[in-house]
Amino acid sequence: MKSTIILANLPHRGSSAGEKLTRTNTSDGIRAPLGSIRDTAFADFVSNAVPVHLLAEYVYCAAKVPNRKIQGDIRTPVLLEGQRIHEAEAKRVLAEIGPTKRIRISTVFDAMVHAYRNITVALRKRKVLANSEKRVFFLTVLSEYGIVGRPDAVDCRDEKNPVIIETKTTDKMPLSPWPDNELQVGIYMMGLERLGFQPTHGVLEYVKRNSPKQRKRYTIPLNAGLRQEAVSAAKTVVNLLLEKEEPIATKNPRKCIPYRFVSSCQWKPTVIA
Ligand code: SF4
């Protein structure tokens, strides 16, 4: 039996989203086999897929991938604070959207149609869509690479091209976007492409942890380099999870300091206690 997941749906008219999606193509020429995504239970796909945040962690340090596998997902006060700030942002955006319906998602194809439909409605209504813990309007699904992710928000106010907005909380404002965050935005844009949209860029917004009014925004263009980096990261992360490759850990001990698995990490540079 196919398992189901419940997501939020914007009120809409018409039911042609699935038909349109079958005709979409991506700029990198990849078409996922629609037959297989129609038959794959979404819950099964999610449990076997590589989450986008893990790809971003790989860019930060490849040893984070096996550490995650060994340790599981441990929540820390810093992580929870970041989630709290994001939830507050999402609630503010969702208050403008108003009531939504809950719908059941059975297959990978359903999840993609759901995202396509919600973003199309948001473009028509010139809205910003934000995913929260309880209301998920669109997921990134790159079935051809086995990738799934939940972007923070998509700005549909220009009516034509949706713009991914990813918010990161930080103690220190970066002078330029961090590569792991950039990759994450790149993959979310590729997810929009996969649905047939044509995003030209995304936005990465840094928010000061102790002073959320202090913000810095960067525009991230979707170019061939970023696409290639995403595909290559996805392949390597799968190999690391399957233990087909040994991770090449960071040589920069300062990167390990804020890391929650530092005490048990077997790949850390020896200067770290
Ligand atoms: S402790 Fe250091 S080497 Fe280990 S995963 Fe974290 S950043 Fe990488």
Please characterize this protein's 3D structure.
The protein is α+β, with helices and mostly antiparallel strands and 273 residues long. Helix content is 41%, strand content 17%. The chain contains ten helices and ten strands. Helix 4 runs antiparallel to helix 8 (179-194) and helix 8 (179-194) packs across helix 9. It is globular, with a radius of gyration of 19 Å. The termini are far apart. The chain binds iron/sulfur cluster. The site of iron/sulfur cluster (SF4) has 13 residues, from helix 5 and helix 10.
What are the main properties of this structure?
about 270 residues; alpha+beta; Lambda Exonuclease, Chain A; five-stranded mixed beta sheet; three-stranded mixed beta sheet; about 15% strand; globular; binds iron/sulfur cluster
Lay out the secondary structure:
Elements: E1 5-9, H1 17-22, H2 34-39, H3 42-48, E2 50-51, H4 52-60, H5 64-71, H6 77-97, E3 101-105, H7 108-125, E4 128-130, E5 140-142, E6 147-149, E7 153-155, E8 163-170, H8 179-194, E9 201-208, E10 215-221, H9 224-241, H10 253-256
Helix pairs in contact: 4-8, 4-9, 8-9
The protein binds iron/sulfur cluster (SF4).
Residues 61, 63-64, 67, 249-250, 255-256, 259, 262, 265, 267-268 line the site of iron/sulfur cluster.
